[in-house]
Automatic annotation (TrEMBL):
The keyword Metal-binding does not apply. This is LppX_LprAFG lipoprotein. It holds the Pfam family LppX_LprAFG. It is found in: Cell envelope. GO terms for cellular component: cell envelope. Keywords: Cell membrane, Lipoprotein, Membrane, Signal. Residues 1-23 form the signal peptide. InterPro entries: LolA/LolB/LppX (IPR029046), LppX/LprAFG (IPR009830). Belongs to the LppX/LprAFG lipoprotein family.
Length: 216
């Protein structure tokens, strides 16, 4: 009798362990395709870019808001000739209003900004996050964490450079895709001498980007 009871308990334990307590993880390529399509429908988002260590990229930190129309505002910290410069910007239409730590706002054209960094491309279906996810190489879903799937994958340098300027080589990174919406929540990119993390939030929140009052 005791032997039978022990066998029943053992079978129950094995079954519980093998089931993993949840649903089977999705296939990586299917999830990336779904996430890419989901990102194409985004109307607006908030983003942040942070660095740890000393990765060899000029962009060190950024926070801002984006719209699908290509407008954006926020702050960016760039390393220029060995000096860290924090820039406040508002990109409206074809005009960029920007200012450094001192002085008033100045103007650039969108084309001139693109030579440094154009954050408005982050939501671009052809050049931004949707393209980054669509071209991700060998994606492998590793786990489910806090309502998101963690995926190990490889990104090509040219596509990744749109998100993080200065990146030219392929990178083995990790992304988190929201389980409910299939939208991207975070990207972690290990680079030489440091790590870059890009995070997204406030999807489709009402956003109106306007020129700063002092821009004239």
């Amino acid at each position: 009798m005791l032997r039978k009871l022990l066998l029943v308990v053992l079978v129950a334990l094995v079954s519980a362990c093998s089931s993993g307590g949840g649903a089977e993880l999705p296939a990586g390529p299917d999830l990336m395709k779904k996430a890419s399509e989901a990102m194409k429908t985004v109307k607006s988002a908030s983003f942040s870019i942070t660095t740890e260590g000393k990765p060899k990229v000029p962009l060190k930190q950024a926070d801002g808001r984006l719209t699908a129309a290509g407008d954006a505002d926020g702050t960016i910290s760039l390393e220029v000739l060995g000096s860290l410069q924090e820039i406040t910007f508002a990109l409206v239409g074809d005009t960029v209003h920007f200012k450094g730590p001192t002085g008033g706002f100045q103007r650039l054209t969108r084309k001139e900004l693109a030579q440094l960094y154009d954050p408005s491309l982050i939501l671009s279906p052809d050049k931004g996050v949707p393209q980054l996810l669509a071209t991700a190489g060998d994606p492998r879903v590793e786990a489910e964490e806090n309502g998101a799937y963690r995926v190990a994958t490889t990104f090509s340098g040219p596509v990744l450079g749109t998100l993080v300027p200065g990146v030219t080589q392929g990178v083995n990174g990790t992304v988190w895709v929201d389980k409910a919406t299939s939208r991207l929540t975070k990207v972690v990119l290990p680079l030489q001498d440091g790590t870059v993390t890009v995070a997204f939030s406030d999807y489709d929140a009402p956003v109106t980007i306007t020129p700063p009052p002092s821009a004239g």
